């Protein structure tokens, strides 16, 4: 099976690495192209042993899956470029905000899946939300699901939910890295010893959330002794309204995904 990535940036690399590591699909079947950065293509082909080409006709004509992984601002150009060669292949978009309707407005009726993975795909730990249009064959539904299952968890959602998935888990790893930056700064006196404490604390908390039947609030309360250190620390978070700030962060990212979509739709009279 031939799978072609249109776009060779961070998300394409995360998926390529995750798919290669999963050994779910033969490496000979992964192809990648971009707009003009030849050095980047060379790096990806050498690092992951995938193939590259700028000849869209030969790249796409016998492809089974086309994965669109360009920035939203470049989507229109990329879709116009591939349109002559899209003839029933499964087209998967990972773009934030870009609706299936927008893609159809350029490509026409075609089997389209819209996915929102995250960069933890690189280590097989993405949390992907996945939706489809009504042109998808049963076998293509299974294939798209198996591609994202190879690089993490997959949840089928209504397309209208993908803005929230984008704000929550598409961008989510960045919020966690942001917290880690703060923890690292606060623990700078430990020097390079700080990071192992931070990483294991995150891993332990994630595994507790996964395996315990207690809610996050109950788990937090079990750590918070009356008059103790956690209570003192959390009081600072409360005084800075950190919980509200996080809720607003996710809401703003979600709303931005909707704004991106509306911008495209207005620009193309959809
Ligand atoms: N990064 C992330 O964490 C996530 C990203 N996404 C989505 O993935 C998409 C890609 O993001 P990301 O990988 O970070 O972006 P990058 O900027 O890292 O990569 C974009 C790629 O698109 C290529 N490109 C641009 N125009 C064209 C074109 N007309 N034809 C072919 N290739 C083209 C660029 O090539 P060149 O360098 O030659 O210009 C580049 O390789 C975005 O739409 C984003 O919403 C989704 C989930 C998570
Ligand atoms: O920041 C972005 O727009 C992309 C989409 C989700 C994660 N990164």
Descriptive report:
- Keywords: Amino-acid biosynthesis, Cytoplasm, NADP, Oxidoreductase, Proline biosynthesis.
- Residues 159-258 form the Pyrroline-5-carboxylate reductase dimerisation domain.
- Catalyzes the reduction of 1-pyrroline-5-carboxylate (PCA) to L-proline.
- Pfam families: F420_oxidored, P5CR_dimer.
- Its main location: cytoplasm.
- It is built from 12 helices and 8 strands.
- The chain is of the alpha/beta class.
- The protein has an 8-stranded mixed beta sheet, with helices on both faces.
- The protein is globular, with a radius of gyration of 21 Å.
- It starts with a strand and ends with a helix.
- The protein has helices spanning 10-22, 38-48, 56-61, 75-82, 100-107, 138-149, 162-170, 172-186, 194-211, 216-223, 229-239, 242-267, and strands at residues 3-6, 30-33, 51-52, 65-68, 90-93, 112-116, 126-132, 152-156.
- Helix 2 links the parallel strand 2 and strand 3 (51-52).
- The chain folds into 2 domains: 3-161, 3-Layer(aba) Sandwich (Rossmann fold), CATH 3.40.50; 172-253, ProC C-terminal domain-like fold (Orthogonal Bundle).
- (2S)-3,4-dihydro-2H-pyrrole-2-carboxylic acid (A1CAB) binds at residues 96, 166, 170-171.
Summed up, the domain count is: 2
CATH superfamily of the largest domain: NAD(P)-binding Rossmann-like Domain
Could you list the spans in which at least 5 consecutive residues all have pLDDT below 50?
Answer: none
- The quaternary state of the protein chains shown equals single chain
Chemical compounds bound to the protein: NADPH dihydro-nicotinamide-adenine-dinucleotide phosphate, (2S)-3,4-dihydro-2H-pyrrole-2-carboxylic acid
Structural class per helix/strand content?
Answer: alpha/beta
How many helical elements?
A: 12
Report the order of strands and helices. EHEHEHEHEHEEHEHHHHHH
